[in-house]
Specification:
The structure is a homodimer. Helices cover about 40% and strands about 20% of the residues of chain A. Chain A has helices at about 1-20, 25-55, 80-90, 105-115, 130-135, 160-170, 200-205, 245-255, and strands at about 60-65, 95-100, 120-125, 140-145, 150, 155-160, 175-180, 185, 205, 210, 220, 225, 235, 240. In chain A, the strands form three sheets. Chain A has a seven-stranded mixed sheet, with helices on both faces.
Chain lengths: ~260, ~260
């Protein structure tokens, strides 16, 4: 939802410029300035989320993340990974279990690479190992990003997030969602109203182009799932940490000025 | 554990033959007969598990299975898949969600192929979709096999089985383990005593030889996990269906003669 938020903001900027009868050059400069402003705000938002989220991480913690919500996905340090980067920079010893995140493998390809670049200790696992390592691996918290968050705190995020949230709940492990206020859609009362994009079956039936399943079978490939707010311990935004009940906390935090 | 059970039985057969001063040809014939007898017994055991397990499947049911425990893994119709085959042959309309089962993809490569051969409707999913489809896909029961079952009903099986069991529990979906009595190790009091084989990291860092993760990162690759008996609704053996408490039911069922 924050992609559309940014597009709307750019269109508003362009519409206002158009009404002022500017030259094409002036219009281009204005639109570019707005885009750079959004990028700068995104960097600042990432830093805020990182600083707020790092307060939830203790020295020595083992963490788990799913998909990629880091520097490769934002203009700054990311969302879910920002608290991890900040905690690491604060000198906290942490270790991150990284779900590979089938079918597109954002965890194996992107998150593992990012953490490796920053010398943050990590262990790559297949998605189906999450429960086993929650039971035996000493995982103290889960950090994930979000594609869209409803007013009640329901979270749409990469497929597999819901399974991780349920497993964390059963193992009494805090499940933190990290996302800027631009991802929170206060007009959406709950997550079950979100239509789920169905992606191409070959993303599942093949891995990066190599067929791994028989030809002609039925395949499901929902791009994301919805995690009900009951499984979300807290939502770390750029303007503060929202606690349940989210109906109250999200609107209070995200309606603050200064965005 | 049933591989070692079969090896021990073959060694006992050979030792007995050796004590009887038979010729090499006579010894070979005796050992071959014993092997064929085990295969015939395995076929019969699969049929028994299938018939017993099919009683747990209703017409119209949507099921989920993990890994491959079918005709490709046994001398007969398999363990977890046997009830599915029998239910299908009884004319019940069923649909099976098949976990792809990373890292080795036994679900995508083997189970999907087996079910396709038998014209049983299936949907292949990535492992991390199991929770989502338990919530939305109408899944009525989970069937899995087992590598080893302890006397208290704890089940060692392919990595990811524990996550599926926890998810099934939270969604109030029965979780059935199907295995012959030769898989049940009554000398093992509980599953947490089972050492877990750690396999080569490249099985996770690559998919069938194609690298999917950065070089030099740490990878975990436990071959299986242990599902505590609390998550197991019933254990379908070749000699009967064991219900909790398993300490009593497993020893009672598996000590019956006629194996």
């Amino acid at each position: 939802v924050n992609l559309f938020w940014a597009i709307e903001r750019m269109l508003r900027c362009a519409a206002q410029a158009a009404s002022e009868q500017l030259s094409l050059q002036q219009l281009a400069a204005l639109v570019r300035d707005e885009a750079l402003k959004i990028a700068a705000e995104d960097r600042a938002a990432c830093l805020n989320m990182g600083t707020l989220g790092a307060s939830l991480i203790q020295d020595g913690d083992v963490l788990l993340t799913h998909c990629n919500a880091g520097a490769l996905a934002t203009a700054g340090w990311g969302t879910a990974l920002a608290p991890i980067y900040v905690a690491h920079n604060e000198g906290k010893q942490i270790h991150v279990f990284v779900d590979e995140t089938r079918p597109i493998l954002q965890g194996a390809r992107l998150t593992a690479w990012e953490l490796q670049q920053e010398n943050i200790p990590l262990t790559l696992i297949t998605d189906n190992m999450a429960g086993h390592f929650m039971r035996w691996g000493g995982i103290k918290a889960v950090f994930v990003g979000a594609d869209r968050i409803a007013a009640n705190g329901d979270v749409a995020n990469k497929i597999g997030t819901y399974s991780v949230a349920v497993l964390a709940h059963v193992h009494h492990i805090p499940f933190y969602v990290v996302a800027p206020c631009s991802t929170i859609d206060l007009k959406l009362s709950c997550g079950d109203q979100i239509p789920i994009e169905q992606r191409h079956p070959d993303e599942v039936a093949a891995v990066r182009g190599m067929k791994i399943a028989p030809v002609g079978i039925q395949v499901a490939n929902p791009a994301f799932d919805v995690t009900p707010h009951q499984y979300v311990t807290a939502i770390v935004t750029d303007k503060g940490i929202a606690q349940p009940p989210y109906d109250a906390s999200l609107s209070q935090i995200c309606s603050q000025s200064g965005s």
